[in-house]
Fold ferroxidase.
Amino acid sequence: MVCLLTRYLIRRRLLNQLSIFRSSLDLPCCPVVKPLMLPDFTEGKPFSILRYFSSRSVDLGNVQGPAVIDYSSLLQEGEFHRLADSTLNDLQEKLEEYGDSVQIDGYDVDYGNQVLTVKLGTLGTYVLNKQTPNRQIWLSSPISGPSRFDWDQSSQTWVYRRTKASLLPLLETELERLCGEPVELS
């Protein structure tokens, strides 16, 4: 409480109230704020709190930062949209057909605003959407959770880099497990 009040009083340039407050409570103040470090506010000079509480650069030595992303390896935006739209449209058609073959209350497939939603009633909901800046398709699954799929040029499929799982076989496996009927999405 003392530190918050100290900061407030400094911001409001009420140095006199700060010293009265500190002396009346006889409590130690925030160690960062010391009266000797504060400027005299009565001189009429502009005061910048940032000057007194700014962070200084820290030498981290040989600590490695995150790996550099090779943006030249990413798909061009037009190619990404073509591949992702084709994948999501094909999935929509095949999942609508699949819905006719399974008897699940609340089964619904919806595609709008570049988001494909597959509701399986009480079994859960799948959400697939395009992430253009990352050139990825994101999947939210009631079984495997969130996944981010990148286009793999060599295998010509969307692949989750962490597990090396392909999007379509993963969906086939999970939907069969949830619904009890096999589905062909590839």
Q: What stands out?
A: The longest helix spans residues 77-101. The mean pLDDT is 76. Helices lie at 2-11, 15-25, 49-53, 77-101, 167-179. The longest strand covers residues 145-152.
